[in-house]
Design brief:
7 strands; Rossmann fold; binds 5-O-phosphono-beta-D-ribofuranosylamine; alpha/beta; 185 residues; seven-stranded mixed beta sheet; 2 domains
């Protein structure tokens, strides 16, 4: 069984879709959900699926405690699903080609520092773009610059608000992220 860990800082709707997808899989299981926020809703979602949880502070992560936990749990793949802290290089190097992130835009557009959550969708709206989408990529030491493994796009209409854009992007994420992870394993 391939053991997956999901790192998330917030609601965890993507994490939920991933847990659902692998719930009855004979190939892989979500073995751990880890968060830097003790009150993140993703932890509740994990409990519902009987998945173990782990919380940590930025300092603890930087001191190597998250890496130790992942090793202790014999994690094979790390999935970032709305994880907002910069991952220490040592942790990234411990999962070469086995760490995946989802970004709510069509990279290389709207990537990099400060481009997360609603900031991305506001920027797409302000630029007047006619499409946006999702990017699933491997994580390397350079923010949002790892190898792109999958993209899907959706139309943006002039009357769409940033919230409307966010909803369309979320729908794409929910539809594709679990199956793209599955095909990568
Ligand atoms: C997603 O839009 C993802 O692309 C981004 O963070 C958001 C997480 O949403 N990195 P949720 O917590 O899975 O609902």
């Amino acid at each position: 069984m391939i053991r997956l860990a999901i790192l998330a800082s917030g609601s965890g709707s993507n994490a939920e879709k991933i847990m659902e997808h692998f719930q009855h899989s004979s190939k892989a299981q979500v073995a751990l959900v880890a968060s830097n926020k003790a009150d993140a809703f993703v932890l509740e979602r994990a409990k519902k699926f009987g998945v173990s949880t782990f919380t940590f502070t930025r300092k603890e992560m930087e001191a190597g405690e998250l890496l130790s936990k992942l090793q202790e749990e014999k994690i094979d793949w790390v999935i970032l699903a709305g994880f907002l802290l910069k991952i220490p290089d040592q942790l990234i190097r411990s999962f070469p080609e086995r760490m995946v992130n989802i970004h709510p835009a069509l990279l290389p557009n709207y990537g990099g520092k400060g481009m997360y959550g609603s900031f991305v969708h506001e920027a797409v709206k302000a630029a007047g773009d006619t499409e946006t989408g999702i990017t699933i990529h491997l994580v390397n030491e350079h923010y949002d610059e790892g190898k792109i493994v999958f993209q899907a796009s959706t139309a943006v209409h002039p009357e769409d608000t940033a919230d409307d854009i966010a909803q369309k992007v979320h729908a794409l994420e929910h539809r594709y992220f679990p199956e793209v992870i599955d095909s990568l394993l």
